[in-house]
Design brief:
The complex is a heterodimer. By secondary structure, chain A is mostly helical. Chain A is built from 10 helices and 2 strands; from the N terminus they run ααααββαααααα. In chain A, strand 1 and strand 2 form a beta hairpin. By secondary structure, chain B is an alpha/beta fold. Classes of the chains: A mainly alpha, B alpha/beta.
Chain lengths: 274, 288
């Protein structure tokens, strides 16, 4: 049910990717996302596929799990594909019926766009699958630390993020429980038109909000009881430190970016229209 | 008029790192009108088990029959099943959402398609059954005390007039007084309406006083099944899996071990008291 939404969740396992410094994973993920946008050719996507495939393989996260993470964007994906397919003009016409025209450029854009979207989500979910929420925020905090000098409350923002991430599975579980409880009382979430369905959500949303506030309140109290007072002078139990494998990961990713940039931009290779 | 489970297995998140077999080959039958206790340690699969009984969770394999009909048949009316097998979740007060208690309790009957008047009638009856004071009917459910919230939530399920009532740890988080009141109320309900009641708990003490039959779950498997007397005879095994028999059982076994002629199977304090008195009278008689 709702628990099946895997995007943004941590997948506990032992792997080379899991053991990397979170900073490496954040920076490399960003580089990967950027790499998808600096090229737009078949060979470029082949490079991206190879790199992503390698990382997924190394991460020990089952491919099925990553594909499941793509489920929430299916609608967006379909929308993008359909829009691009029918509205992009350019190149020769492939198919024409009634008011719809599919052009070469349209087909090309829509396919590449779909792949790009899927890789964006898969790439970032690899990061969240292999990095615990705490690791992520630690890395983020360290990376953004220089901003402290210009009075950006980096620690506070990182703390808010880690709390938000931590609460995702809790609230999902809570939603699942409340849904079941209301279903046991005969609630129906599946039939009816949009308005009826929206109304059917009230019995879920009200208890969910109440419980979210209750939890937030409890957490605030628990933090205060342990003398939490922000980032000032706070030390880490496990300070982040770069190792050999982290440097290797940086090197490989940079190499990949260079390759995809060169290959994707300057190697003229076309297969049919792609 | 019964619920039958045949070789029910359930696996959580199959094919992932979180895969876990929550139920292993569970079979039993609950006849109409029985008061059953399901006992098990945290994580023994008892909550998962009861969610199968009204079809909220679908078994990975195995069959569940309600009144002789397989609930996994394609044309089976799940909503009707859910209105006949009422399930009260753990901490049910977290499902309250309406502006006042009466409206909230009406939610169930409203979903069953009753008219507003009938809904209110059923709701009032249900609130009365659980001993909810009438002066709070129009109050927001969020302003009530823990015990009252719990009552209101149980009434929310009772208002659907189920034939079977399943309660998952109905006393969790209540003080001893609140706990006894709720359990007494449930017992009264069972006695007066003849409803089948399934009470899930991890406390033997709670359950022993009320139920006709105890099913002990351990690691997703049915470990013991029988009357409280039969089950508590295995008190050493129960200890091994982190459960305990009621204190009375221990006292009686110790007395027996020290040469008193008592029946160690006494499960309630009253029975035990009678047994001990009998044993003493017997001794006095022998001396005189």
């Amino acid at each position: 049910m709702i628990r099946d939404i895997t995007i943004g969740q941590y997948y506990p396992a032992q792997s080379r990717i899991h053991s990397l410094d979170p900073r490496v994973k954040i920076v490399c993920t960003l580089l990967f996302l950027v790499s998808l946008f600096i090229q737009n050719s078949l060979l470029g996507y082949v490079c991206a596929t190879v790199f992503l495939g390698m990382v997924i393989h190394l991460s020990n996260v089952p491919l099925k799990y990553i594909l499941k993470g793509l489920k929430p964007i299916v609608i967006l994906l379909l929308f993008t594909v359909v829009m691009n397919l029918f509205l992009t003009r350019g190149g020769g016409t492939l198919e024409h019926f009634w008011i719809f025209t599919i052009t070469e450029e349209g087909l090309r854009t829509s396919v590449f766009m779909a792949v790009r979207l899927m890789y964006l989500v898969a790439g970032s979910s690899i990061m969240t699958f292999t990095t615990s929420p705490n690791g992520l925020t630690d890395g983020m905090e360290k990376l953004l630390h220089p901003l402290n000098k210009v009075n950006v409350p980096v620690h506070e923002v990182a703390m808010m993020m880690s709390i938000a991430l931590r609460f995702i599975p809790i609230l999902l579980e809570e939603t699942d429980k409340i849904m079941k409880a209301q279903m046991a009382r005969g609630a129906d979430f599946e039939s009816g038109n949009i308005i009826q369905r929206a109304k059917a959500m009230v019995p879920i949303l009200v208890p969910l909000f109440v419980s979210a506030f209750r939890r937030a309140n409890d957490l605030a109290l628990a933090m205060e009881a342990r003398c939490y007072h922000g980032g000032e002078g706070r030390t880490k139990m496990k300070p982040l430190k770069y190792h050999g494998r982290d440097r290797a990961a940086y090197t490989l990713t940079l190499l990949y970016v260079v390759i995809i940039f060169v290959v994707g931009r300057f190697v003229p290779f076309k297969l049919w229209i792609f | 008029m019964s619920i039958t489970l045949e070789h029910v297995n359930y696996v959580y998140s199959p094919g992932t790192a979180y895969e876990k077999q929550a139920l292993k080959d569970v079979s039993f039958e609950i006849p109409q009108g029985q008061f059953v206790g399901i006992i098990g340690h945290t994580g023994s699969g008892k909550s998962t088990l009861i969610q199968h009984l009204n079809g909220l969770v679908k078994a990975t394999s195995g069959r569940i029959l309600y009144e002789g009909k397989n609930i996994y048949d394609n044309d089976y009316d799940m909503r009707k099943l859910r209105s006949q097998v009422g399930l009260v979740f753990q901490y049910p007060e977290y499902q309250l959402f309406e502006v006042d208690v009466l409206t909230d309790v009406c939610f169930g009957p409203k979903n069953q398609g009753f008219s507003p008047e009938e809904c209110e009638k059923n709701a009032r009856e249900a609130l009365e059954l659980v001993g909810f004071p009438e002066k709070y009917y129009k109050q927001s459910p969020f302003e009530l005390s823990g015990g009252q919230k719990r009552r209101a939530a149980i009434a929310g399920v009772l208002a659907m007039k189920p034939k079977v009532l399943i309660l998952d740890e109905p006393t969790a988080g209540l003080d001893p007084k609140g706990r006894d009141e709720i359990l007494d109320q449930i017992e009264k309900l069972h006695r007066e309406t003849g409803m089948t009641v399934v009470l899930v708990s991890h406390s033997m003490e709670d359950v022993a006083r009320y139920v006709d039959r105890i099913i002990v779950m351990n690691h997703g498997e049915k470990m013991l099944d029988g009357t409280p007397r039969e089950v508590f005879r295995h008190y050493r095994e129960l200890e091994k899996v982190g459960l305990a028999a009621p204190q009375v059982t221990y006292v009686m076994h110790d007395l027996k071990a020290h040469g008193f002629e008592v029946d160690p199977d006494a499960t309630t304090i009253e029975e035990a008291a009678d047994e001990i008195m009998k044993a003493f009278r017997g001794k006095e008689g022998a001396l005189a």
